[in-house]
Every structure is written in C-alpha cells, then in structure tokens.
Fold this protein.
Amino acid sequence: MRDDIIGILRGNVSDRVIEAMWRVPRELFVPRRIRHTAYEDRPLPIGEGQTISAPHMVAMMCDLLEIAEGMKVLDVGTGSGYHAAVIADLVGPEGQVYSIERIPELVLFAKKNLEAAEVKNVTVLQGDGSRGLPEYAPYDRINVAATAPKIPEPLKEQLKVGGKLVIPVGSCYQELVLVERTQEGFELEHHGGVVFVPLVGDHGFHI
Ligand code: SAM
C-alpha cells in the first residue's frame, strides 16, 4: 500500500518529497475501478489514452526541481491532477500551482480529484501548455509531464532567473532534462531515459 511506495522512494529522493507523497492520496486520482492498484509503482490509465505517471517518476521530478514553500509553479499536462497535488503540498499554502491540460475531459477529471483531495492552491486550466501560461509568468519552477521534440522556447522564457524547468525530451528515445535559467542564459542537466506520452501542441508534436 502507501508504505510500499514510500519504501521504494526512501534514500532516492529528499525526505520533503517523500513526506509530500505520503500526504497526497494517489487513490483519489485514479479511476474508481482501478483504485486497488493506486500504490503500484507504475503509470496507470486515466482515460482519453493518457496516464498518471509512476510515483517514482513524480518523486524524481519534484526532487530535481527542489520545490520550496511559497513558490509559483507551472505544471504542464495536468492529467489526473496528482502530480500538481504533490507540487501544491511542496509549495504550501503560500505557494500557487497553475496546471494546464489539453484535453477538456481530463481538466474536469483533475478538478474533481483535486476537490476530493481538498487541494486548494492548484488552478487547472484547459489549453496548449507547450506555449506555457504567459498570464501568470514568470515562474519559479515549471514541470512538464509529456515529452517534447525539443525544449519549448516559451517555457524557457517564462522562467524566472534562478528558475528551473524539468521536461522529457525526445520521441523514440526520451531523456529527462533539467533546465536552470541563470543570469547568462540556460544550463542543462541530463537525467537518463524515460517514457512519457507526447506533448501535443504548437511547440510540441503536431499529431
Ligand atoms: N501529471 C499527470 C498526472 O499527475 O496524472 C500525468 C500527465 S500525463 C503523463 C501527460 C498529460 O499531458 C496528458 O494528460 C496529456 O493530455 C497532456 N498534454 C499533452 N500535450 C499537452 C499540451 N500541449 N498542453 C497541456 N497538456 C498536454
């Protein structure tokens, strides 16, 4: 159950991330008929051909971003709303998460799940997150949970100096990339192979 996941994460990510994952009930973010599988460490189907990411991947991405209390975070690819809920826990009540999803049915699903989990500091919007969300920019952190052909320029531009962005990049072979905006430009770190659904949009894949 929930303890199994925490056991897998311990020693691999920070205690802060583990505690946030412990507090957010993943079973409220998966379809009712598969709730008994909610604490398996793998992606699960959420409808519309999309998935909720595996817990270890959510933890790893949150850990790489070093999310602190009070931050403003953009989350691209809301899906079930689970990843946004973990980020919301990490930024705390003084922080804010803007989460954008392309598929209207999933926007409704995520809003319902976040309400059931009593998460108050996530605003879910429908749209093409490959363009970012300029209305609320700049962001301290940007989390992208779908793979892009290359790092979308609008997302880089919407980062604060000192801000960080994590994103899977590639199609057949995908790699998790951490981008940090510095005074001079952008620094990239590569964090190994991953498997994500495509980021579909103007600065993503044109499917
Ligand atoms: N973070 C999600 C969760 O916790 O359940 C899982 C994300 S799922 C792996 C990727 C999501 O990205 C899908 O729901 C998909 O519809 C969405 N997506 C793909 N392209 C997008 C785009 N351009 N803008 C916003 N969402 C997009």
Observations:
- DSSP finds six helices and nine strands in the chain.
